[in-house]
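task queued by scheduler; priority normal; single chain, no ligands, no partner chains; default sampling; output format set to structure tokens
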Amino acid sequence: MVVAWRITDERWPTFDGEGARQYGSRWTSKGLAVVYAAESRALAALETLVNMRYSDMLPSYVAIRCEFPEELVWSIDVVHVPSDWRDMPAPSELRTDIGDRWVTKQLSAVMSVPSAVIPQERNYVFNPAHPDFARVSVADLIPFIFDIRLLNRYNPPP
């Protein structure tokens, strides 16, 4: 079984993909519901941290562990993405040619992609609408508190 971690605000601990559907993401366009997780708690924390403002740093986060069979995973290797794939904003080809196609053609329940934060590590994108998504096991919420030093160093309080 593959294990992945999601760190999210405790107000939105679901695996329904509503956030990505509303706002879009690096790998999918606005309007497509997907859920992001990382291969470790540490990577999940970094992925959350890079999108966090100082005012977001509250003790209201949770870590969610999930497990799924390897056969549910469709993997994207870094050699198959545009050279500027880590840019912000991300190139549209990541969404249109890879992620959106993966969701709409229902290629798998889980897509493994390189992390833009640490390209040698993996993030997982889940498609809650895929029939095999029911095989993803989501565990209980675990309180997760960011060490304030992580944010103070790079984003001092106003």
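post-processing summary
- The radius of gyration is 15 Å.
- The chain has a mean pLDDT of 90.
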